[in-house]
Amino acid sequence: MKLKSIFIKFGGALCLFFLCFSCSNQNSEIKNSLISKYPVITQAFTDTLSTYLQEYPEGAELAIAVVKDSLVEFYGVRVSANELLTIENAENIYEIGSITKLFTSILFLSSVSRGEVGLNDSLQQFFPFPLKAGERAGTPVTLTHLSNHTSGLPRVAGSSIKPMIEFITSFKYNPYRSFTQEALENYLKNEMELDTIPGTTESYSNLGASLLGEALVRRTGKSYEVLLQERIFQPLGMTQSTTKRDAIEGKLVKGINLFGGEATNWDFAVSAPAGAILSSVKDLSRLVQAALGLTPTALIEILDQSRRETFRVNESSGVGYGWQIAYRKSGEPIYWHNGATGGYTSALAINPGRNSGVVVLSNVNPFTAENLTTLCFKLLRVIESRSESESNLL
Length: 394
Description:
Blueprint: H1 2-24, E1 31-32, H2 43-52, E2 61-68, E3 71-80, E4 83-87, E5 94-95, H3 100-113, E6 135-136, E7 139-140, H4 143-147, H5 161-170, H6 181-190, H7 206-220, H8 224-236, H9 272-275, E8 278-279, H10 281-291, H11 300-306, E9 311-314, E10 317-319, E11 324-327, E12 333-340, E13 345-351, E14 356-362, H12 372-393
Parallel strand pairs: 1-4
Antiparallel strand pairs: 2-3, 2-14, 3-4, 5-8, 6-7, 9-10, 10-11, 11-12, 12-13, 13-14
């Protein structure tokens, strides 16, 4: 435990050092040459982007989708020669990281609607061998616990020493590559532990999302990729989305790592349900439109159910099936999720009460600049404020 702690602390210190180093080499101000695209992409919108992007490195880009009522707008930004430029990148593909978990929970609800699994089915029943810790204090881990991060499982399985050593020594970080089917089964049989009684505490778990997807794969006999394509991507017209990097060769934007170089793309193996999806803002805008009920879809009941709060964390936050829920001071719920890999960050937020949503994808390491989720929430506020201003003029 002490050795693990040393590596974690050293790795964190190393990240902070390079973060400070990279920031100290940024020029004082990046010129704003962004072009507004009315009616949705206003001057306030581009000003917000300019303020946020001052710390972004050369070659960084953002792809943005904005949904407001019946309008859908796409906006792209690139940092080039210390200048912010407007570009067309709605169909560029990025690693979306943990937004994948939202799709895994939608697949879970799809399987429930088909009678393949139950909301409260125990994790144990999906494996032919006894789990080392399938329950705690007589309470079993269920599929809903895996979906809303209340299973009691740790964030990841086993020790983080190996990937941390790999990161420090080679500047390449691919943490899930070695977590194979064999490694998963060994963990479940011999190492699995629950930190809390299932259903009592929310604690974000990549491992839990992986196991939810694994349970669905075992029950249906179909791969995770096939389930996504058949039950979500094809019905919603998401033709650019996949977990297979070779399927979108040449379309994937190159990620930028913490040191300003080209990032290593992550290989998720059995952890695919926690973060393996590759997608574009054009495709993700289709999910947003469907979730807001703005486009007809056979998935509408499942998407509505996914937003149902299954655990209240505190006064300002809760969890649905895959969705994180943030409550504004007015009590208005914002449903969101974000993601990060070695060279990409992503964020998605919707406000069903105002028929609005924003998706932001970037090719920048999450430690490089300000939290992308903050920007996503700010942009959501901007488009809602524009709508309110227009209503006051009527």
